[in-house]
Amino acid sequence: MSGGQEKICVVGLGYVGLPLAAAFGEYREVVGFDINPARVRELGEGHDRTRELDRQDLVAAKHLRFTSDPAEIADCTIYIVTVPTPVDASHRPDLNPLLSASEVVGDVLKRGDLVIYESTVYPGATEEDCVPVLEARSGLRFNEDFFAGYSPERINPGDKTRRLQNIVKVTSGSTPEVAERVDALYQEIVTVGTHKAPSIRVAEAAKVIENSQRDINIALVNELAKIFNRMGIDTQAVLEAAGTKWNFLPFRPGLVGGHCIGVDPYYLTHKAEQLGYHPEILLAGRRLNDGMGDYVASEMVKAMLRRGLPVAGARVLVMGLTFKENCPDLRNTRVIDVVRGLEEYGVCVDVHDPHADPAEAEAEFGISLVASPEQQRYSGVVLAVAHSDFREMGAAAIRGLGLEDAVVYDLKYLLEPHEADLRL
Questions:
Q1: What is the C-alpha to C-alpha distance for residues 285 and 218, in angstroms, rounded to an integer?
Q2: Residue-wise over 132-148: b if at least 16 C-beta within 10 A, else e?
Q3: Distance (Å, rounded) from C-alpha 424 to C-alpha 219?
Q4: I need a surface site. Which of 23, 93, 150, 359 has the fewest CB within 10 A?
Q5: Nearest to 304 by CA among 216, 421, 191, 397
Q6: Are 165 and 188 in contact (CB under 8 A)?
Q7: Could you tell me where the DSSP H helices lie in 198-330?
Q8: 9, 76, 260, 327: which is the annotated catalytic residue?
Q9: Euclidean distance between CA atoms 422 and 25, whole angstroms
Q10: How far apart are CA 146 and CA 114, in angstroms?
Q11: Which residues pair with 93 in a beta bridge?
């Protein structure tokens, strides 16, 4: 580590912040700050509950230490904010975590310091919402006494192939000179290169449309799946046939949750509506995707009725609760919509997920995860998340969890077409 290198503080040690802090911590002095003392304590003991990093990764970050005490970050000169940016119950952006983090940084900000934001926001949020907080708390002047940058995160939780170091990083700064400084900083850890955007607003907009584009494309194939289901056509077979064309995009139907695709479009639509424009395609895609849980529940119930299975009081197993495969993250999972939808029909739902934290599932949703579903026999089984554990079970073991005439609904194409009774 070079003695001339500036000391970095990463604020927020979740799926985004921890890998970033560890990557820089291999080469320069880094302080990882989080308001959760339990999280800080676990990381100090070499345990990452998100499973993004293992003990060896944390050991390799030999210049990284953790704290929940703001006084211990006062000697840093670069602050990188990586806190969540969720939406509230009305789908309005909730900037409270971001503004709170800005207050923490503002209280220790000094002349010449640089504050970089990675959290997903609408265009303008960094300079219009966060910078005023930094100025008010520090008494310093933006672009005279301190500077800002924006480099949107592109972490893909649970993905062991696409990692921080091999995903191109978009960078930006509040002045041309600062943009160069931010870009050079990330080039230290990103081996595949960076893309320097011409402004912070451009970088913010680029991030928010990445997931909006995916959301709209998934909404399209979800709608196609509904149409093909009425026609008695297998959607996967249609997509495989269409996929033989060189420019066909390989999207698949499914539940759209998590803290990115199911959230980010609302940040863009919120800003658009503030400016007097009512987005049509973005909101239509959100409505369709948000309704897929109810659709799955109703299709399951119809299939049970066609087989003469009683619905009220029937037991159905939902396999998977996290928002994506091989990941413990329950934030904004839309599997819960399937569970609640089935419960509205009077179905007794058991949920099994070996990757989810039982305490978190209980606290967040009031769900007691079933550890051993083989002890029951179910009228229906919903394959909701493509965990490798479920893929390795095979069709026979999955069908063995149900009664002889049970309905198996495969949302993730884990089974062959003839092995499932329903597929999206």
A1: 8
A2: ebbbebbebebeebbbb
A3: 13
A4: 359
A5: 421
A6: no
A7: 200-231, 235-242, 264-274, 281-290, 292-306
A8: 260
A9: 48
A10: 6
A11: 87
Q: Is 171 helix (H, G, I), strand (E, B) or coil?
A: strand
Q: In the structure, what pLDDT confidence band is assigned to residue 3 with cuts at 50, 70 and 90? A: very low
Active site residue 260: yes
Cα–Cα distance measured from residue 204 to residue 198, given in angstroms and rounded to the nearest whole number:
11
pTM greater than the 0.70 cutoff: yes
- Specify the DSSP class assigned to residue 142: B
Ramachandran angles phi, psi of 112, nearest 5°: 90, -10
| Terminal alpha carbon distance of the chain | 52
Could you read off the pLDDT of 179-236 as tens digits, one per residue?
999 999 999 999 999 999 999 999 999 999 999 999 999 999 999 999 999 999 999 9
Contact present, 43 and 114 (Cβ < 8 Å): no
Question: Within a 13 Å sphere around the CA of 321, how many CA atoms are in the beta-carbon half?
Answer: 28
Question: Which residues are registered as beta bridge partners of 8?
Answer: 30, 78
Q: Measuring CA to CA, how many Å separate 394 from each of 1, 49, 399? A: 50, 28, 9
Task: Give the Cα separation of 170 and 130 in Å (integer).
Answer: 19
